Amino acid sequence: MPEKRVVPVISSLTDLESKLSGYLNTDTPLALLLDYDGTLVALADNPGSTILTANMKSLLNRLAAHPQIFLAIISGRGLRNVQSCLAIQGITYAGNHGLEIESGDGTRHDYELPVEIQKHYTAIVRELTEKLQRNGAWVEDKKLSLTYHYRDTPPALVEELKNAARHIIESHGFRANQAHMAVEAKPPVNWNKGEAALLILKNQFGINWTQKIKVIFAGDDTTDEDAMRLLQGSGISFRVSADPDLETYADFRLARQSVVEDLLTWINNVYTN
Fold first, then answer.
1. 59 neighbors 39 (Cβ within 8 angstroms)
2. pLDDT of residue 57
3. pTM for the full model?
């Protein structure tokens, strides 16, 4: 069974070249699965304020166009939201932690929530908005899951609002997950970024995908751990974190978000040089 542990840290392109030498080669296709917030872009006080650097955008476009590389973005954002952020055509996007999936050809593979769960979701949005959208805290309604943001809330009020949000979410049977200065409400279904990643790989490469391709996954949040857990032993995953004591299902820790550019540069160098 996969276990969390403290893993080796990677801080530069040189680290990647030395510690993963030989993992990738131009003869073997690569499935590159990436989170968005905190991974491709630095976290911002408001999701609408994130900025994709020019170099990162250029790298992503080059990798997406390479015939040996399959690129998929698996985000907690709503599907259309993350698509608009990147605006890269012909790649696979998964939104709402994998509840919404759209392949590069437009094919959808959405997880259908039962009607009763949808009713509870509507009630959570209404109750959080009416009772707790104050003091700088706000509700991001993604239609299938939501995020209660409190990054701009005065520190003295954070614990009270966070606990109240968790109580409302859980009282309706949803899962309250801790995120970066936020609480996420996820439906009580056996589906997450890990299950989405496996579905995407199976749909693209077949049930024996582990024998055909190399896989790289990178993410920065607790919700990304589901993918890291399910991909352990079948690919290489990276957890973005500055915490040297972090225990993770990933194979390596990226010391900071900017090292993700080094990761993409390393991949680009392998497949284009």
1. no
2. 95
3. 0.90
